[in-house]
Amino acid sequence: MSKSNTKREVDITWNYYDIVPPNRLQVKCKFFSHTCWGGLAKMKQHLARTKKDVIPCCSVPDEVKEIFIKMLKGKEKKKQRMRCLI
Length: 86
Ligand SMILES: [Zn+2]
Known about the structure:
3 helices, 3 strands, single chain, three-stranded antiparallel sheet
């Protein structure tokens, strides 16, 4: 049901970083061309500048930062809802 929404969200995210082959856990930030270990979840924290287990990006534009903050907040809400169902 919500599969198409998730796909669109991932597509947006891919505009801002690359995976460094062959290791999927290493992703490269397009704003400062630094690499980040921990995969997509860590890179989202990096771009949202949450300072949660990851160094915040020093060159991400505010509008992009907002996208990732919203994305992360949405995920938290989903998790909470799932917990309630269990
Ligand atoms: Zn960065």
